[in-house]
Input
Amino acid sequence: MRITGSLFSLNFTFAVLYTLLVGCEVTNGQDSLKGLKDYYKDYFPIGVAVSPASLTGAQSELILKQFSSLTPENVMKPAPIHPEESRYSWENADRIAEYAKANGLKMRGHTLVWHQQSPAWFFRDAAGNAASKEMALARLKEHITQVVGRYKGTVYSWDVVNEAVVDEGENIYRETDWYKTCGSEYIAKAFQWAHEADPDAQLIYNDYNTEFRGKREKIYTMLKELKDAGVPVHGIGLQAHWNINHPTEQELRDALDRYSSLGLKIQITELDISVYPSDHKNPDDDAFTPEREQKQIDQYKMIFKVLREYRDVITGVTFWNVSDQRSWLDNFPVRGRKNYPLLFDQDLQPKKVYWEIVTW
Ligand code: GLA
Output
């Protein structure tokens, strides 16, 4: 009896302590035991761009608590994964895929066709002359078939073509090596080959500045032509490298309405919100002020409010990098200017803005 009694009081003490501890973690309905993925589970998966190095230690803990989807930041791009025509380098992409599978996370593939981080060999023949259209397309088919085929069943959504539309002027297509070698045909072909390699994958066209009217209409025109021609394009990725002033709520709503009117799904693929205005390159005015912090909070709140409203068409929201510890914006557009574009601070702790977007 004595033993049972002391066990009872031990259990009781434990229960009281547990309630106190857990109770302390719940402030204003904000439950720190939950992660972004839990708050948004009835809306869309919440993803994050990662490198293999971020899948260990404290970053891994953060990822597993907060996110339900991964995108490789770099290692699936054409140059890292296919450095020579006869050689693929799978190791890093495999590590991310294995981590996603082992931990029950979804995985996005990024990216099959892009004008940056793409090897020069695609566009040269054995003698070093410009490759013919036939040669370049045959290589592209091989690349897409191998890469999509390898991750079939793991990658549920592919950024098939990245940034093929030009920002300025009247022309639709960016003058890339792909365009110069093959005309715009490479775009439709890339989607067809990706679909053949994995008929279940959601195939996305991915770009930035997708909310500016001029570029939006060019992208819309291209996607409409692809859809009308029966090309298997299923969605558009809004990269969402935004800032404290852009987009406005109206611009965001107009873009979501316009693209979804084509029957396309929408993914937010590379979300971050710079604390500096986009054209801002003046070192005298690089301060991260309380006003800018508040603008970032307001911008994030507005964006998530709108995204929740559009949950029927939005099939994923992915942040570009894990925390303010490291962001590509630390070196763009101003090299070495520290930015604070994400929801977690440099110590991997949720920022004020985090709590603002998990309560509504
Ligand atoms: C583009 C690409 C991404 C990444 C960013 C910069 O948005 O799609 O893969 O390279 O630029 O980090």
